[in-house]
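TICKET: design request
STATUS: open
ATTACHED STRUCTURE:
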């Protein structure tokens, strides 16, 4: 794959949008708007040249280790379109893995957000006991 095809770019764009947190309002998030303009305005030879870490970090709360899509590598040389597409694919895979991880943590640690009293009450019920009703002086 020497140059990304429009189908590849469309698929990459959709996979990045899929990983964004859902919006309750009808307006798209600033990152979704930025992704749309970036993918729509750039030709197939420079797919994600204007994506930056600052824009990604402002719109999502994933991590500060998101790679830089500014079009420059660490040495300051310009990246090829293939390198930019590969980095965008890696970002999409990372965001998908983070979403899956959060889902699994919530599923297998259901008492994570419970109070101590609620956790004790449910533990007692699990073994067939009910806690006594506490008497509160008023």
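STATUS: resolved
RESOLUTION: sequence designed for all positions
ATTACHED SEQUENCE:
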């Amino acid at each position: 794959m020497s140059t990304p095809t429009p189908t590849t770019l469309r698929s990459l764009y959709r996979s990045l949008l899929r990983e964004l947190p859902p919006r309750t309002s009808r307006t798209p998030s600033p990152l979704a708007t930025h992704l749309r303009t970036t993918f729509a305005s750039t030709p197939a030879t420079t797919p994600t040249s204007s994506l930056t870490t600052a824009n990604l970090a402002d719109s999502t709360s994933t991590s500060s280790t998101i790679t830089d899509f500014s079009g420059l590598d660490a040495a300051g040389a310009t990246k090829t379109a293939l390198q930019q597409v590969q980095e965008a694919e890696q970002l999409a895979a990372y965001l998908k893995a983070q979403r899956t991880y959060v889902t699994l943590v919530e599923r297998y640690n259901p008492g994570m957000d419970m109070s101590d009293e609620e956790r004790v009450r449910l533990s007692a019920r699990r073994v067939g006991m009910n806690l006594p009703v506490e008497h509160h002086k008023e």
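CLOSING REMARK: Residues 44-69 have pLDDT under 50 and may be disordered. The radius of gyration is 23 Å.
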